[in-house]
Structure formats: C-alpha cells, structure tokens
## 1
Amino acid sequence: MAERDALVVGGGLAGITAALRLADTGWRVTLLEGRPRLGGAAFSFRRGDLWIDNGQHVFLRCCTAYREFLDRLGATSLVHLQDRLDIPVVRAGGGLAHLTRTPHVPAPAHLAAALARYSALRPADRLRAVRGALALGNLDPTVADLDNCSLGIFLKQHGQTEAVINSLWGIVATATLNVVPDDASLALAAKVFRTGLLDRADAADIGWAAAPLGEVHGTAAAAALERAGVSVSVGERVESIRAGGFVSSRRGESRRALQAEAVVVALPHRDAFRVVPELTETPLARAEGLGTSPIVNVHVLYDRRVTDLPFAAAVNSPVQWVFDRTDSSGLARQRPGAQYLAVTVSAADDVVDVPSRQLRDRFVAELERLFPAAARASVLEAFITREKRATFRQAVGSNSLRPPAETPLDGIFLAGAWTATGWPDTMESAVRSGLAAADAATGRPASSALGFAS
Ligand SMILES: Cc1cc2nc3c(=O)[nH]c(=O)nc-3n(C[C@H](O)[C@H](O)[C@H](O)COP(=O)(O)OP(=O)(O)OC[C@H]3O[C@@H](n4cnc5c(N)ncnc54)[C@H](O)[C@@H]3O)c2cc1C
C-alpha cells in the first residue's frame, strides 16, 4: 500500500507528539520547525557555561500523556517525580510548612489529612479549606457553564477567606492556570483541582526536569523522531498553509512549496490564524480571542547554598515558586558549593515590563526574607527571563473558545496546548492535542488509549 504523507508544522511538544503518532501509524512524516531547535515553549539556552531553562516546567503524576511522551523519547530518567506529594511552603523569616499527602490514605480523604497538618493556615482556615475542597470536588469540569464563572468568586461563595485562597488554592491555581484566581475560568480550575488533586490520592505528586529542558525535549525528541523515520527540518519557517494540504515555507532566502494529504498545524494560536488565514473564515476563528498571559523567571546564583529545599512555594510574597537548578544547569560542576535558584512568577502582568535592575533588586531582597541564609551569601549573578505570551489567557470564558483538532478545511488539523483538550495550557495538554490531531488526520477514532503504540 502506498505511504500516505503528512506534514507537521511546529516542533513543540504538540508537533513532536503528532509526528511520532503519525509515523507509528505508518505515515511518511515531515516536521517543519521555524526555530533552530525542537521543544517549542519549553526550552533551554546557554549562558556562559550554564544551561538555563526559559521557565521552570513542572508536571504532576496525573499527567499520563506527558509521562508516556517522556517514555517514548527515552527521557524518563531525565526527570524527577516525587514518591508522594510534598510541597514545602515558605514564609518571610524562614517559616516553613509542608503540604504533604500521607501514604495509603485514599482520595479525597488524603487531602483532608494533608490540610489538617498544613501549618501555613490557622486551624479555623484549615476547616474552611476542607469545605472548599469538598465544593471543588463536586464540580464537573465538562459542564460548559462553569467556564462563565470565576474561580475566585466560587471560592469566596464557598467560605474561602483571602488567607485560604492566598496560602492554598492560589498557590496551585496561579501556577497551573497562569492567571490569578479572580480571573481564572472555573471550568479549567475544576479540571486542575479534580484531576490534579482530588480524584486520586497520588495525582498531585510533583515532577520536574532534572536536566536542561533542551535535553529532555529537544535532544531526546530529535533522536526519537529520527528513530521513527520522521524527516525533521528546523530553521524552516512556514509562511502559509491552505486547504488541500498546501504549505509554503522559507529558510533564509530559499522558499519551497509542499503538499501532503494531512497537515497538522501545531503552532501557538496567534501564529496558527496568521499562517492559515482561511481558518479566520470558519467558526474556529473565535479562538483568536484566547489572548495571552506572561510568565517571568528571576534567576539568582549565590556563592553558597542558601536552602536545602529542591523547590518551594511562597506565601504572601511576590516569589510564587522557587526551584533549585544548581545540578541541572551545570553549576554544581562548574562551581561546587554555589547555588542557583530560579523564581517563577506566573500571571506576571504587573511584573513583565518592569526593568530588569528593579526586578533583580526586588527579588533578591525577597529571597533574603524567605531564606535568611541568602542574606549572608553573595549574589554571583541575577538575571531575568520573560515569556510575554507563555500561555493562552485561561480567563473566564476562554475554555469554550478552544477549537477541536478537526477543522472545516480539507486536510488541515489543529494541535497545540491551546486547543480543546480539556486540560489547561500545559505540556500535558500539548501532548494530548498532538495525539488527537494525529488520530483525526488518520481517521482513527479518538481513543482513550494515549499510548504511542499503534
Ligand atoms: C515560562 C513558561 C513556563 C511554563 N511552565 C509550565 C509548567 O510548569 N508546566 C506545564 O505543563 N507547562 C508549562 N508551560 C506551558 C508549556 O510550555 C506549553 O503548554 C507547551 O510547551 C506548549 O506546547 P505546544 O507544542 O502546544 O506549543 P509551542 O511549544 O509553542 O510550539 C509551537 C512551535 O511552533 C513553532 N513555530 C511558530 N511559528 C512557526 C512557523 N511559522 N513555522 C514553523 N514553526 C513555527 C515555534 O517555534 C514552536 O516551536 C510553561 C510555558 C512557559 C513559556
């Protein structure tokens, strides 16, 4: 039987996944990526002798598609996944609480047990938090109306005080939805809290890259795609895509025209509509209104260790989350004894345009408040990375704007973390979208089986 041709445009996690799935199904696949590397929004760059991630990327045990993706890339050994949830929560002056789960306590009781011990909240607020958890646990994320409500309003309606929101729900919601609770779509928040925290006891065990993201997603993906027989062209920018599978691309001054039975458009939403203008004449055009939301990272290198925590969330602080990147960046080898902390600020609208010098001063001072040992250390270097369009804006009303993989255009399919996967704009959503687009292209029923095997 003649091979069927597919083009995948965009080499982020969605495009890599779609290409692997199509190749597994026996299609001849070419992947075109505009940048000189794979991995899309989750990447690393070189700064001196160190590898710096553009932003800390975290996943949860419940991210089953992303974890299978790592397996398929042979990259599972490059990430660390907690045996059981333990979020250290730091406060000014060195105060430390833990949000942990007890082994062998089934859901949802596991959370009640964790909240009972959660010393970042006063005992009365811990009881309120249990009430909030029960209310969130009763939400069905697939009910469309939830998208028209705000998480913040819902929490307040269910007795959650500012303290509970700031010290508990907001820590999780802002990091996963990249908007503050008052702005967040309740439908997407319900997905986060149900699937990520409440439905299974082990769902929220936290994972993160133990190597630079470029190694986890870029190098490992390139090798997996090669093994699968996918032809990969990086540094080749697609300029337009038309119904019928017509693609024109450009590399420097040279242009080429390609055609395939199926084209998977795995681009950020703003690029997808620009590159496939015919989409703007379809009902899917409403997704142009998804907007964007920024994430800022503040990277601080100290001459000595200032904390033994591998990561922590912070309450009542502009430092939302902080991660120890000493080993993964290569600093441990370059300068033994030194430490590299990366601060993540999600929903960073107020911060993203602040000059670097001001941000460095503000966050270095804040880290001293959270980790008193930092005040005795010397800062070797501090710098900022900004992702102005890190995710789509997961605000009230956004979930219903997301398009499915199928489009009304002949041979054109959509992938990307922003498409209608039911998940927030995450690596898990990107991988799920790639699987869905490949299945739509091959006519395979959208299967519940997420495995890559055909
Ligand atoms: C700072 C930051 C922190 C984050 N933290 C987390 C986290 O902790 N956990 C989590 O799960 N998710 C996180 N995310 C979100 C996650 O990175 C994204 O959801 C996911 O990587 C999106 O993958 P994608 O393949 O859908 O899109 P992208 O990664 O955006 O891939 C699209 C690709 O298309 C390419 N492209 C664009 N235009 C063209 C063109 N014309 N021709 C050819 N190629 C083109 C781009 O170069 C890019 O490689 C974070 C994102 C950022 C930016």
Note: The pocket of flavin-adenine dinucleotide is lined by residues 9-15, 32-35, 40-42, 54-59, 237-238, 266-268, 271, 275, 295, 387, 390-391, 416-417, 425-430 (CB under 6 Å).
## 2
Amino acid sequence: MKIVVVFDSKTGSTEKMAHAIAKGAQNSGAEVTVKRAEKVVNKDLQEADGIIMGSPTYYGQMSGKLKQAIDDSVELHTKLTGKVGAAFTSSGGAASGAETTLLSILQAMLVHGMIIQGNAAGSHYGAAVKGAPQPEDLKVCEELGAKVATLINQLKR
Ligand SMILES: Cc1cc2nc3c(=O)[nH]c(=O)nc-3n(C[C@H](O)[C@H](O)[C@H](O)COP(=O)(O)O)c2cc1C
C-alpha cells in the first residue's frame, strides 16, 4: 500500500504536520513518500493508493504551490478515480479559513473521483492546526495518516 503526502509550507508548520501524517500511515503498514508540492510529479500521484495533501491556509484557500500541483495533475484526469484522499492545513487563526482550505483541497480530490472519509468527531474535514503544531496536534495528524491507511486496506480487501 503506497501513500504520498504532498505539502506546501513556508515557515515549517504544515511540514511538521506532513511528517506526522506520514508516521501514522507508516505505523499502519503503508509505504509513504513525503513530497513538497513543487517537487511532486504525476507519477507519484498515479502510483499511490492514497494521496494526502496539505497547505498553509492562504486567504482561506490552499496556497498557489499546492494548487499548481493539482492543476498539473489534469494530465491524470480519470486515472486517480478510486484513490483515497485526505487534507491538512496550518493556519494563523482558529476560525480564519482553515476549513475552507481543507474543503478546497477535498473539492479538487472529489473532481478527480477520489474517495474521502469524513470524521464524525474532532476536525471533520481533515487535520487543521493553528500555528506551530503541539504534540496533541501531531497526534491528530498521525491519526489522519492511520485512518487513510486503514481505509485503503478496507477497500483492497
Ligand atoms: C500569503 C499568506 C496568507 C495567509 N492567509 C491566512 C488566512 O487567510 N487565514 C489564516 O488563519 N492564516 C493565514 N496566513 C497565516 C498562515 O496560514 C500560517 O502562518 C501558517 O501556520 C503557515 O504555515 P507554514 O508554517 O506551513 O508555512 C497567511 C499567511 C500568508 C503568508
């Protein structure tokens, strides 16, 4: 089971979340690659069973770099159908665009035909952290990685 974690991060908070998500997925048996948005290539996305994308909250949306990676994935349109997706973001404020950022990422994944599992408890749309991630935030990120790995396993069975 392969998962790619794609992120943009300028001051390091989203990057820390990316690595915690990767750890959670690895602990659940996934082979995980972590890539910056500007380094990811379509082959990485095509070969993965799960794609987890994260960005700082920029004006209530994903950053331009992550959007560019998604726009470049148009070459794969229809080929990502059925892959499992999830989103994460780091924001400056508590209620200042994190959820719309998560939803902007999930929206693109749905357009690709990907499968998203919601979360009935806690952060409903993915992992969202205000400022520098604290140990409890990193735990939530690990859980998100584990959840994606579990869903992939269930779908493969
Ligand atoms: C261009 C720009 C736009 C931003 N817009 C928002 C915003 O709309 N809402 C918010 O809460 N924080 C906003 N921030 C703050 C970042 O989301 C926040 O500092 C985040 O933790 C940075 O993540 P990083 O350390 O991974 O780069 C903005 C920062 C920048 C540079």
Note: DSSP finds five helices and six strands in the chain.
